[in-house]
Amino acid sequence: MKVKDPRYDYHITVSAHLLLKTVDNQILMAKRPETWEWAPGRWGLPGGKIYQFETFMDAIKRKTRQELGFELMPDGLYQIKQLIIKDKQAFMYFFSAKYEGQELTGEMTDYKWFGIKDLNEFPSNKFAEYFYKKMLSEFLVKDAKLLPMEVVDSLNYIKLSDTKNYKDWFEGIINKDYDPNKVADFKKWKKVKK
């Protein structure tokens, strides 16, 4: 019997965040409600955790609708941060979008536009993330290079599971007859292989 490698036994969090920028080079920060579990009362970017089986684009639409009061699609991917924390890792994807004057009516406590001077003068311990001051300053100062949204490709294997090509591929992987009920829960793959 194969022993499970403990190096793979940890929790992963994936989140999508939005760098919403004005034409005069300011970025939107939102004050998190005091009731939130992570960094209550601190200033952060719109966005958050991606639900299980949710695409990046669906998460961005959902989070901007909740936190800003309107849906928004990003122009490109700016950066990915990997945070290595005891017993878990977090992958934070930062997307960029242009602000076009929409009214801010979301669930956040307050909103503020930060320019370079504001970022430099703002206390680091008031930000929701340790690295925000440096990352946001670089984003505003440098001519930020964005990866086009085409590089963000969400493949929904659950939806693909009904296609013939996917079934053929999956049967080749597990050397068994395809059963879509077992594919829906990827944790059951081990059982499928037996």
Task: Give an account of the 3D structure.
The structure is a single chain. With 194 residues, the chain is α+β, with helices and mostly antiparallel strands. The chain folds into 2 domains: 6-150, Nucleoside Triphosphate Pyrophosphohydrolase (Alpha-Beta Complex); 155-193, no CATH class. The chain contains 7 helices and 8 strands. It has a 5-stranded mixed β-sheet with strand order 4-1-6-5-8, with helices on one face. A 3-stranded antiparallel β-sheet has the order 3-2-7. Strand 5 and strand 6 form a beta hairpin. It starts with 10 loop residues before the first strand and ends with a helix. The model is unreliable at 184-194 (pLDDT under 50).
Helix-strand topology string = EEEEHEEEHHEHHHH
The tally of strands reads 8
CATH topology of the largest domain: Nucleoside Triphosphate Pyrophosphohydrolase
Overall structural domain count: 2
User: How much helical structure, as a percent, in the residues?
Assistant: 25-40%
| CATH class descriptor of the largest domain | Alpha Beta
Distance separating the two termini:
12 Å
Strand content: 25-35%
Shape: globular
Number of helices: 7
Q: Strand pairing plus helix content: what structural class? A: alpha+beta
Fourth-level CATH superfamily of the largest domain? Nucleoside Triphosphate Pyrophosphohydrolase
Rounded Rg: 20 Å
Mean pLDDT value: 83
The CATH architecture of the largest domain can be given as Alpha-Beta Complex
- Characterize the main sheet: 5 strands, mixed
Record the strand order, biggest sheet.
Answer: 4-1-6-5-8
Contiguous uncertain segments of 5+ residues: 184-194
Family: Belongs to the Nudix hydrolase family.
EC number: 3.6.1.55
Protein name: 8-oxo-dGTP diphosphatase
InterPro entries: MutT-like (IPR047127), NUDIX_hydrolase-like_dom_sf (IPR015797), NUDIX_hydrolase_dom (IPR000086)
